[in-house]
Specification:
Blueprint (H helix, E strand, L loop, with lengths): L1 E4 L7 H14 L5 E8 L2 E8 L15 E2 L4 H14 L9 H4 L17 H5 L20 H8 L18 H15 L3 H10 L14 H6 L4 E4 L2 E4 L16 E2 L1 H13 L11 H7 L4 E4 L4 E3 L4 E3 L5 E8 L2 E8 L4 E7 L7 H12 L21 E4 L6 E8 L2 E8 L4 E7 L1
Parallel strand pairs: 1-3
Antiparallel strand pairs: 2-3, 2-13, 4-7, 5-6, 8-9, 9-10, 10-11, 11-12, 12-13, 14-15, 15-16, 16-17
Helix pairs in contact: 1-11, 2-6, 2-7, 5-6
Length: about 425
C-alpha cells in the first residue's frame, strides 16, 4: 500500500479542478473536512478548512474527529477478529453469554437472539436510554443490565425485521467484554487499533496534544456556525458511538475492508469474514433495494456497495466501499451537515470507476442478443437505475435518474 496526495488521483487536470471546486462548495457547510480515497493499492488524502470556524488551525490528516455511528464499523471489525480467533461466535446467543440478563419482553424469542442479530440490527431493540450517553460514569455492564434490559422491543411478530438501534452495538460490546475479561476500549486497542497502526484512534485522550488536535464540533443555526461546549463523555463505554479518529486512520481502516490486509499487506481479516460482513442479513428499505450487512448498509447490483454514516452532535462521517473495484471513500467533518458529500461521492466513483460505469445513452454498443433483461444500477449504486424488458421482438428500457427524479419510460432499443 502506498500513500499519495489528493492531486495524484488518476483523473485529468480538468476533473481535478472540478473536484477542487466541489470541495470549496462543501466548505460552505462545514468548517473543516478530511477526505480519504482508497483506490487499487493506494490511499489518497485531502484536508481543507479549520478545526474551528474562522480559526487558524488547519485540518490535517491526523486531526481528530468524533466518528459518531461510524464507530459501529470498527466494532464490527473487532467482533469479526474475535470470531476468527475462536473467542466468540456469531451464533452465540445473548442469554447464554450474559448470566442473569433478560430482555424486557420476556418472550420465547428472547433466547434466539444472537451476536449476529445484534450486528445486523435484528434484535428488535428500539433505542438507548439517554443517561448512558450524557457523560454518566455508568459502566457498560451497568448500562446493559439496568438500561438495555428495560428497552422495548418490536412486537414478536416483527422479530428478525430490521430496526437500527445503538443498543444492539452497546450490547454486543459488553458481550465482547464478558467473553474476554477485558474492557471494550482495551479490546479495540489490542485487536484493531494497534495491529492496523492507527495512531490517532481511540476512546480516551488526556494529553494536551489531543485537545489541540481535536476538530471542534459545530452546530448550525440561521446559517451561522457555533462550537459545541466540551463533551463530557466517558469514551470507554461507547461501542456504538463516540470513537475518535483521523482521516488518515479511517482511510487505513477502509483499505483493510477493501483488501482484507493491513498496511504491510498481511492478512488482517479473512475473505470469509469480509464476505460475511458484506453479505445481506436484513432488508432496510425494500422499495429502494437497500439492505444491511454487519456494521454497514448495502446497495447496488448484488449488494456490491457498502456504506455507513455517522451523524452526531456537531460532526458528520461517512464511508463508501466497493470491494470489487478496491475503491473506498471516507469523509470526516466537524459539522453535522452532510453538505456536498453525496455529490463528491458521485464524482469520485464516476471518475475512478468510469470504465465500468453503465451509460444508458450508449446502449447501442451492447450486444442486444446477449443482454440480460431486468434491473441495472449505476456504478455508484444510487445515481440512476435502468430496467430492460421485452415486448414482442423489441427491447425497451425504463430509465430513472434518482438524483433529479427524471424518468424516461418505454424507450425502444
Amino acid at each position: 500500500m502506498r500513500s499519495y496526495k489528493f492531486n495524484d488521483l488518476p483523473i485529468t487536470d480538468k476533473k481535478k479542478n472540478e473536484l477542487n471546486d466541489l470541495i470549496l462548495k462543501h466548505l460552505k457547510y462545514v468548517p473543516g473536512v478530511g477526505i480519504g480515497v482508497v483506490f487499487q493499492e493506494g490511499i489518497y488524502i485531502h484536508t481543507a478548512g479549520t478545526t474551528v470556524k474562522n480559526g487558524d488551525t488547519q485540518i490535517g490528516e491526523n486531526t481528530i474527529f468524533y466518528l459518531s455511528s461510524l464507530t459501529k464499523v470498527f466494532t464490527s471489525i473487532l467482533v469479526m477478529r474475535l470470531v476468527e480467533k475462536g473467542i466468540l461466535s456469531l451464533k452465540d446467543k445473548v442469554l447464554d453469554v450474559l448470566d442473569g440478563f433478560q430482555f424486557r419482553t420476556r418472550s420465547k424469542e428472547d433466547c434466539l437472539i444472537t451476536v449476529e442479530d445484534l450486528l445486523a440490527n435484528l434484535s428488535g431493540l428500539y433505542g438507548v436510554y439517554p443517561s448512558f450517553l450524557k457523560g454518566s460514569k455508568m459502566s457498560l455492564r451497568q448500562h446493559v443490565y439496568e438500561e438495555i434490559s428495560q428497552i422495548r422491543r418490536m412486537p414478536s411478530a416483527e422479530h428478525k425485521n430490521f430496526y437500527y438501534s445503538s443498543a444492539n452495538y452497546n450490547l454486543v460490546g459488553y458481550i465482547c467484554e464478558k467473553v474476554t475479561g477485558k474492557s471494550f476500549d482495551n479490546l479495540m486497542k489490542l485487536y484493531v487499533i494497534e495491529p492496523l497502526g492507527l495512531e490517532n484512534t481511540g476512546y480516551q485522550y488526556i494529553s494536551d496534544e489531543y485537545y489541540t488536535n481535536l476538530a471542534k464540533g459545530h452546530i448550525v443555526s440561521f446559517h451561522s456556525f457555533s462550537t459545541l461546549p466540551p463533551v463530557m463523555d466517558d469514551f470507554r463505554f461507547h461501542p456504538s458511538t463516540q470513537l475518535l479518529s483521523s482521516i488518515a486512520d479511517c482511510s487505513k481502516m477502509a483499505y483493510t475492508l477493501c483488501t482484507g490486509n493491513d498496511l504491510e499487506n498481511i492478512t488482517f481479516l479473512s475473505e470469509e469474514s469480509l464476505s460475511h460482513m458484506f453479505e445481506r442479513h436484513s432488508t432496510v428499505y425494500s422499495e429502494r433495494g437497500e439492505h444491511y450487512g454487519l456494521g454497514m448498509s448495502l446497495k447496488g447490483i448484488d449488494d456490491n456497495i457498502a456504506l455507513h454514516e455517522g451523524i452526531g452532535l456537531g460532526y458528520y462521517s461517512k464511508i463508501y466501499i466497493k470491494r470489487s473495484d478496491r475503491l473506498a471513500i471516507v469523509f470526516l467533518s466537524n459539522s453535522q451537515l452532510y453538505g456536498c458529500t453525496s455529490r463528491l461521492t458521485h464524482f469520485l466513483v464516476n471518475e475512478l470507476g468510469k470504465e465500468k460505469s453503465f451509460l444508458p445513452r450508449k446502449i447501442y454498443r451492447y450486444d442486444l442478443d446477449a443482454l440480460e433483461l431486468g434491473w441495472y444500477i449505476a456504478n455508484d449504486g444510487f445515481s440512476f437505475k435502468v430496467y430492460f424488458y421485452k415486448k414482442g421482438d423489441t427491447i425497451f428500457l425504463d430509465y430513472y435518474n434518482m438524483g433529479n427524479m427524471i424518468e424516461e419510460k418505454a424507450v425502444p432499443l
